[in-house]
Structures are given as structure tokens and as C-alpha cells.
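User: C-alpha cells for Alkylphosphonate utilization protein, please.
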Amino acid sequence: MTENLPPCPKCSCAYTYEMNTLVVCPECAHEWSLADSTAEEADGSGERVVRDSVGNVLQDGDSVVVVKALKVKGHPTGIKAGTKVRGIRLVDGVDGHDIDCRIDGFGAMQLKSSVVKKA
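Assistant: Done. Predicted C-alpha cells:
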């Protein structure tokens, strides 16, 4: 077990703990990757770094590929794995949805960075 875990970036709770590859806050239930927090500390800029499911850093305008089939409310079919999405925008979305994009056949929507990989 790793001592000296960083405090929660959302609520600054000092009682964080490791669960598999994530660090979890017991007070606000925020989960984040320890690799992400150490990369941000080393960067020193304080900017939010968004990474895809493989760990590549995403930027505005990138193209990504959906790696997991996704159900979409209100549509009889979902988004298939392998669907390419062009021209993403990174946003501070709700519930971890940090990619704003437009998908052909579905329209504008937000995705989580954990279900895409950089193309």
C-alpha cells in the first residue's frame, strides 16, 4: 500500500485510498488515476489533462475512435465500437463526460474519455 497518497482534487480530503489502479476519496466518492495526478504535479501548470482509455493525452480538434459499444437514450441502436469521431472539444462536463462531439447519425453529445482512444 502506498503511503503519501495525494489529497482529493475536488474536496481536498486527506483520507484517500487506492483501489486497483485508481485513487478514491471516501468523502465525495471522486475517483482518479494516480498516474494522472503525478503527471499534473510534474507539469506544474495546473491545467487539466484529459487522457483516453489507453493513456494518450487528448486535445481539442483530435479524432478519436469509440472502443466500447454505447447505448444511447432515445435511439433504437447504440454507437458501435470502432465509430470514428472527428473534431472533439474538451469540456468540464457532468459525471465525467469530458468530450463534446458530433457523431454522424446521432448528433451532438458528450462522451467519457474512458470509452475512446486517439485515432
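User: Anything notable?

Assistant: The first helix runs from residue 34 to 43.
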